[in-house]
Amino acid sequence: MPIQKRNSSHAWALSLVMHVVLLLAVGVFWTQQASHGLTKSKSDKPVGIVIASRTSDSNKTDYYDESTYAAIHSNPERADVTSEAPFFKQPLSLPDIDLPGLDSLASSSAVTPTGNALKGGQLADGLPTLSPTNGQIAREQGKLPQKVNRGQAGKVSLFGGVAATGHDFVFVIDRSKSMGGQGLNALVAAQQQIAQALSGLTDNHQFNIIAYHHRPTYFQPGNALAKPNKNEIKAVHDFFNGLAAFGGTDHEMGIIAALRYKPDVIFFLTDGGDPHLNQAQISDLRRYCGGRTNIYSVQFGFGPLQEEENFMTRLAKETGGIFHYVDMRKN
Known about the structure:
Elements: H1 2-36, E1 51-54, E2 61-64, H2 66-74, H3 86-89, H4 134-143, E3 154-156, E4 164-166, E5 168-174, H5 186-198, E6 206-212, E7 216-218, H6 230-241, H7 251-259, E8 265-270, H8 279-289, E9 294-301, H9 311-318, E10 323-327
Parallel strand pairs: 5-6, 5-8, 8-9, 9-10
Antiparallel strand pairs: 1-2, 3-4, 6-7
């Protein structure tokens, strides 16, 4: 029995020595490899994301690499590409967001479609609308402009031109330097003609005068037009006497200032100096007139008319008015 214990002790000691030597050898080898650093791989290894899916009726696991993902998106109807993965079957879940204004989709006004575009009482998305009551309809109708019998229309003619007919007249006159005493002296001539024309009107008629260069100056400020009575006609002379001819010229601005009164007739008086109105501006002014306002163009000059057609003739023609040329040598 002592002999067996001695042999077992020798075997254990020998095993311990061998393990120590092996560990020392591994440590030396690892130290030498670490000192040389890492070497670059000779070939690039692909890296990607793999999606795994396990079907409910089997324990088989399916793997979807990048090529399979691309094939599914490029042609989802291919028979050789499975789409059993929950990643592709489940829709994207979005949080509930309350968008403002959804309650206002039920319009309080009736929809009156034409043809078969929409059924009455529905919006384009099928939501019902609330029809207005008879009282609401009556109130809205009451807001519409009513036709008022204002008596006989008046007629206004300047410098012997064709007379314009209407109830409301606005005279738009260029007050740039070329229209003053150092130029055509047209302002003084226009003052006399306008005062004379107004004296032939009655209380059924209204007027205003806008003198412009780079900005407008109003005879009657505000939204109301003036009545052609004796006091107002006297004030017309005071208005012209206080005008100084200077500054640039903005024809379009002057006419637009007159159109806001929605008159029957606009008398547009100028020498037609630069900058001229182009066709786009004339088309816009015609649209602003809306078939309601006629523009009568009165051009001043020295000697015979040089151009048979210019922006003033086109403006009058396209708005239903008349063009008239005034030779200041004869006046």
